[in-house]
Amino acid sequence: MNEKSPYSRVLNELTSECFRLNRSFLEVSQQLTEGAGVTGTQWGVLAALGQGGEPTTVAETARRMGLARQSVQRVADMLAATGLVKYVPNPEDKRAKLVEVTAPGRALLEDLKGRQHAWVDSIVSDYSDVDIDAAIKLIKNIRQRISQ
Hints:
The protein is mainly α. It has helices at about 5-30, 40-50, 60-65, 70-80, 105-125, 130-145; strands at about 55, 85-90, 100.
C-alpha cells in the first residue's frame, strides 16, 4: 500500500487553486486591457520589458518571466509593429538587440497600471499586509523548491 504524506493533499489542493487563480488572472488581464489595443499577454510582456526603465533583451525578459524566448520574441515583434516598443542596437551583443519601451508604450502602461490598481484595491481591501506577505512567501518558497 502506498501511503501518502499528510501534506500531499494540501499541496495538491494548493496546486489546483494556483492553476485556477492563474486562469482567473488571465481572464482579468483580458478585461483590464479591453479597448486598450493590446491583449493581456501583450500587456504582460510590455510591462516586463518596461520593468527597470532600461532597454533589455528578449532573452533576459523571457528568463525573468519564466517563459520561452521564442514566445516573448513573438509578442515583442507584435508590440514593435504597433510602435509600443522599438529595437535598438545592443553595444554588448550585436546579435541580441535591446528592446526599448516607447513613449506610447509607457503611456499605455500607465493607463493599464491605473486600471490594475483600481481592480487590486477592490480585491485585497479585506486582507492585511501580513496575510498577503505570508501568501507571497509561501508561494515563492514552494516555487523555489520545485525549481531546485
